[in-house]
Design goal:
The protein is mainly α. The chain has a domain at 67-178: AhpD-like, CATH 1.20.1290. The protein contains nine helices and no strands. It has helices at residues 17-26, 35-38, 44-58, 67-80, 84-98, 101-112, 122-136, 143-150, 156-178. It starts with 16 loop residues before the first helix and ends in a 17-residue tail after the last helix. The model has no long low-confidence stretch (mean pLDDT 92).
Length: 195
């Protein structure tokens, strides 16, 4: 067992050629590798695929949602799933990208308390509602849930992105929680120093 996971992990210094190549593709700007990525040591091929999808979803300039809003959806899923690792990283990103630290932390505090944040408009409230239902009650999703997003002027590309970020972070939260991954020794957030 590693110091930050319930399974063995491999750091960059001890990685074999295939894993070292994978770490080279997923490392941060400072050359460090997220703890969660070190847990992929037995399957570097899956690491590359998971990271490419994640980066295409959250860091692609073609996205149709604001970057802070994608981070809010990601953080909300992490909160709902009780995933401290993703909550810490993406919550920090959300606040940084929102550009209003006091408001950002207040929004996250409300979500952690299970309340709708007071400072959000109807558009953000609808996204929060959709994200919560998809994360906690996926079998109950209905066309009306998408209609509620359209009613606050989200187009289909934006609705798709909300869906994909929420679904993808449900995967990450379950992977992180299921392997006991923590941020021990890791810099929090990704936008500062990220490649």
């Amino acid at each position: 067992m590693s110091k930050f996971s319930w399974i063995e992990t491999v750091d960059r210094a001890d990685a074999g050629p295939e894993l070292l190549e994978a770490f080279g593709e997923v490392c941060r700007g400072d050359g460090s590798v997220h703890n969660m990525y070190q847990a992929f040591a037995t399957r570097p091929d899956l690491l590359i695929l998971a990271d490419r999808f994640y980066r295409e979803l959250l860091h692609n300039p073609r996205r149709s949602l604001e970057d802070w809003l994608q981070e809010l959806v990601a953080t909300h899923v992490a909160i709902l799933c009780g995933c401290k690792y993703a909550r810490d990283n993406h919550g920090t990103n959300f606040v940084l990208l929102l550009g209003d630290e006091k408001r950002g932390w207040a929004i996250l505090e409300a979500l952690e308390a299970g309340r709708m944040p007071e400072s959000v408009d109807a558009r953000i409230a609808a996204i929060i509602t959709y994200t919560e239902k998809l994360t906690l009650h996926p079998a109950e999703m209905a066309e009306g849930d998408v209609a509620a997003l359209r009613a606050v002027d989200l187009n289909d590309a934006q609705i798709f992105e909300v869906n994909q970020v929420a679904a993808n972070f449900s995967y990450w939260a379950r992977m992180l929680n299921g392997l006991g991954l923590t941020t021990l020794g890791e810099a929090i957030g990704t936008y500062e120093g990220e490649t």
